[in-house]
Amino acid sequence: MASEPLALDIEKEPSGPLFLAIADAITRDIMRGRLKPGARLPGTRALARALGVHRNTVDAAYQELMTQGWLHAEPARGTFVAEDLPESMAEPVSVSVPREPATVRPHLAFSDGAPDPRLVPDKALARAFRRALLSPAFRGGADYGDARGTPVLRHALSSYLASDRGVVADPARLLITRGSQMALFLAARAAVKPGQAIAVEEPGYPLAWEAFRAAGASVRGIPVDAGGLSVAALEAAIESDPRIAAVYVTPHHQYPTTVTMGAARRLKLLDTVERHGITLIEDDYDHEYRFEGRPVLPLAARAPAGLPLIYVGSLSKLLSPGIRLGYAMAPEPLLTRMAAARAAIDRQGDAPLEAALADLIRDGDLGRHARKARRIYRARRDVLASALSAHLGGRIFFDRPAGGLALWLHCENVSADAWAERAGVAGLALLPGTHFALDRAAPQALRLGYAALDEGQIARAVDILARSLPD
Amino acid sequence: MASEPLALDIEKEPSGPLFLAIADAITRDIMRGRLKPGARLPGTRALARALGVHRNTVDAAYQELMTQGWLHAEPARGTFVAEDLPESMAEPVSVSVPREPATVRPHLAFSDGAPDPRLVPDKALARAFRRALLSPAFRGGADYGDARGTPVLRHALSSYLASDRGVVADPARLLITRGSQMALFLAARAAVKPGQAIAVEEPGYPLAWEAFRAAGASVRGIPVDAGGLSVAALEAAIESDPRIAAVYVTPHHQYPTTVTMGAARRLKLLDTVERHGITLIEDDYDHEYRFEGRPVLPLAARAPAGLPLIYVGSLSKLLSPGIRLGYAMAPEPLLTRMAAARAAIDRQGDAPLEAALADLIRDGDLGRHARKARRIYRARRDVLASALSAHLGGRIFFDRPAGGLALWLHCENVSADAWAERAGVAGLALLPGTHFALDRAAPQALRLGYAALDEGQIARAVDILARSLPD
């Protein structure tokens, strides 16, 4: 049972905390295969002596790796490399040592448009969560049981939507969910009978299609052009296919192309939906991230009263993908059906998280965070756009997105798949158009979700992008 | 816009904090209708002056009531009684002022078996949550995306189940869910095709039936006797109804009757399930709460390898209904199907909560809490059993439950519904047998979930119970 000696290759002058450099060295050894799943690590005392560091430093490194799932401890037996390594093993972006040693290839990823969790107002959130847990309301179990979510958050969200987006949302018509994914699933359950279809944008958001299919609906792609969903094509589809009972749109920043649906087309869409009596599902997933021009209000802010419109939003894009909080606004009886289905699959909301986020909204922390994040992401967008023009101008084209956390890169004369493959080998993960295709041919394009990369990472990523452009 | 003067009837010598006494007085005025929804409250300064207390005290009372959803603040306008009063309005158990003024009737409730959220190790939980939010793993977004849940919690849970229950659960076969409700929904989605049926205990757990129906399955009741689910009746049902594809059981403490399934019947159940090739869904919802005799290991601890058994558990019963964390263990490919459905309806788990609970398990806080809670609940059970015998002996009978958070009270010669109605008028909420009935006649019985009531509250509740016994 004696463990192997562990000769770690730790950076001599790590740019971050020493414990992270140790954690990073161990992670590298696991990735290289020098430390196998199940292998036992030396005790913290022994390793500290071997490395000439304080035992607490080694302990912090082990704790960090346990939190990340690389190691696990067995009481009275020791610390072992996890048998079941985290999914992120292939993408160790989480090891936050900014300078990589020469032996390890830089590993970067353009996401599908995730925010930067490093910006999360974590101290304010931790404080708010603590307040929520220690509050008499939580200890008294007061919020047990409303499938629509904690009243206090529905009230706070109602004010937020009214002041920020012109959406008048009666708290009684709001449903808090676990991220917008659940809101989309519940919307489809409430709006569509099994066997019916939902018209969706193509290219579009595959996770929404999964939610709709899980709810028993089929999905039918409607083409997207430079103005967003083609309402003429939608109209034709509805007339030819009586199964279409709803349409799903991302008018603010179309996913994945980032285009904004213009005012005239918005009115035409509302009119089409109303005439055909179908449900409109509006996903306003990153409303806060508008950098240019006047804010575009959601369809929900100007839809005629009585239109069956389900408005879906998320706080995950605003904070971190790890904060699971979405919401939906819908008229009765759609909301009642959604709440009933939510109770059946999830009983009730998450009282402490909901109370904590209500606090952040009420105290203004969320608004402050949104302003700060908007400033940072806007700068990152500009860095990305400049670097792309400088390195790839002429070979590719793109519109600098007016908002959102991603840029849509057209590359008509290049295979986006081949490009993504070559970039992957060079250490940069990319999402080509095939990722967003339903039935039609995939666009030769890449979605570059840049927000989680800092400016140095963006520069390196564009460098790899340029070097791996297929001939 | 001037607000009405507010003449509050505050207890002169409140037994709790003064701010809670003020909050309580305001709540009473709302409930009495003296303060209407939408009414404006005086400013904190004015009210503090009127009451002769410090302004912070009034502020704390308002904050408390906003957290509970009774009031809401509008920036620059003032504080108002919520238009949309919390569901708990009819049951202000959350207002934790122990001594009620004579004008207000004591309001108590026997639950369906919820734990006491006042016992939650909230400080340890707040600390663990803070650590999780501030950890590099969370800020790095490392845990994004595994639909089975955070690896570190699956590892911690695996050790916990092995040491505590003899259940050998490979972390790769564990799925973390939002409470056991979602685990039950996903179990039915994975095990049963739409149109097929799940055999369930009757009387039984209506929320499980809702989850199964939401997954497209019908439910078929199998009678329960003093030894739990009748396996002979199950066998007959399977033979007569080929739609039955799964059976749902609560063998440890049958819900709602609290009886434990004996060893011989357990073996017979496993044998029946195996011979007919149906899936076994075992809900071990309150394993930790065994007061008497040797611990009874779950079916999952002794099921033959390869049996399609889905084992479902929850940390909500151990901590608080407000902490939404359940889990399921299942063999491949059931687990893969469950994880895929979970991704479609909820994308991913709750990284901070999962990391925080992994911490509580690893540090031993969860085990310490379980031991403490077990001691307290056992004492409460004894107080309840003694009070029932003293006040109602001869009219009713019950077995002192060996475990669990509820007691099943038989009252064959009394209408349980009439009893519940009379007790309700006197201020005690009760759950009669009708609440747990599917197709068969409801048992004349009451489920007394006592765990959330302290000993004084139990005494008062039994007093009301005795006084409202129908003739």
UniProtKB/TrEMBL annotation, chains A, B:
One of its GO terms (molecular function) is transaminase activity. The keyword Ion transport does not apply. Gene3D superfamilies: Type I PLP-dependent aspartate aminotransferase-like (Major domain), Winged helix-like DNA-binding domain superfamily/Winged helix DNA-binding domain. Residues 16-84 form the HTH gntR-type domain. InterPro entries: Aminotransferase_I/II_large, HTH_trans_reg/aminotransferase, PyrdxlP-dep_Trfase, PyrdxlP-dep_Trfase_major, Tscrpt_reg_HTH_GntR, WH-like_DNA-bd_sf, WH_DNA-bd_sf. Signal peptide: none annotated. Keywords: Aminotransferase, DNA-binding, Pyridoxal phosphate, Transcription, Transcription regulation, Transferase. In the C-terminal section; belongs to the class-I pyridoxal-phosphate-dependent aminotransferase family. This is PLP-dependent aminotransferase family protein. The lineage of its organism: Bacteria, Pseudomonadati, Pseudomonadota, Alphaproteobacteria, Hyphomicrobiales.
